[in-house]
User: Fold this.
Amino acid sequence: MSTKRRLQLNLPAPGSKRILQWGAALILLVAALFVPALVQTYWLHVIIIAYFYAILSSSWSLLAGYAGQFSFAHVAFMAIGAYTTGMLGKHLGWHPLVGIPLGVVAAGVIGVGIGALVLRFKPAYLALFTIAFSEILRLVIRGETQLTRGDHGLHLEPLLGADIISRVPYYYIMLAMLVGTLLFMHWLVRSRIGLFLRAIREDEQAAAARGVDVVRYKVLAFAITSMIAGLAGAFYGHYVTIISPNMMVLTQMGLVMAMAIIGGVENLVAAAFGGILIQVGLELLREFGSWRLVIFGALLMLILRFARNGLLTPLFRLMFGMGPRAELREGTAAVAEETAPVAEGVTADGA
Assistant:
């Protein structure tokens, strides 16, 4: 590949810059490892919940910022993962290590079903359908008191057993989940699948004209993010040991979306840190009562007006690579290269 073409594709910087990016990530990870030794038990709990929201906000960023799918059902899939493992444990006596993977699978299967049903239509249909799906699921959970205990809440067994009362093991498990999901999503967006998703997000018709199976890749992205949300919800349920339908109200979905937007919906790491900072910030402002929500809403409006790419996107784009907009030409070129033989074959047959 010539130097001119390499510049046109705007490929990620090689060499020393990539080393600096991974070095910054390593420093953040090492700092996170020492958090339990520096904070009290209460704040350790707050940070665990913040990591939980970081997984939700970053996975929603993958869905909306990279794949261009505006879904309101992310917390619903989180609840599916939690209630699946919870009901399997309560009614069948299955261990959480069996229930959690099945909760992830359940979220993925339902995500595939919804995606195959709706994602072939315009984006507005996905938003409306997922709002309706989330509300219907919440009402079903409230009504099926024999299975879910409704508003009384479903009790789950602690993941590490009732004998483990320390929050430190849960902290490291949640940290490992956050790092693992971020690494997986980073690999995904840098892979051919991620390049196709970005091309589809920018222009579905152009991508389809190049031979990309638009519906297939959109359903794949929806299913993957649904499974990540289900994983976060399943672990969360076994950590707090009680779940209720209130975990999937529309305001909870709005909070996750706001976290991703404030951090930077077009950068996975920025969206994750947006979830962490907002959750910790809301806890610090708890003494202000309802006014903390006013402050939070004002911050969101200011960001939407003056920093539409989020507060943290410029910093984390510099540290951890480009966002999807900057990589668009790379994705378009990859689509062209991948589908060129198909296009040539069609031309030849037509000739």
Remarks:
- Strands lie at 154-155, 242-243.
- Confidence is low (pLDDT under 50) at residues 1-13, 341-351.
- The radius of gyration is 21 Å.
- Residues 16-336 form one domain.
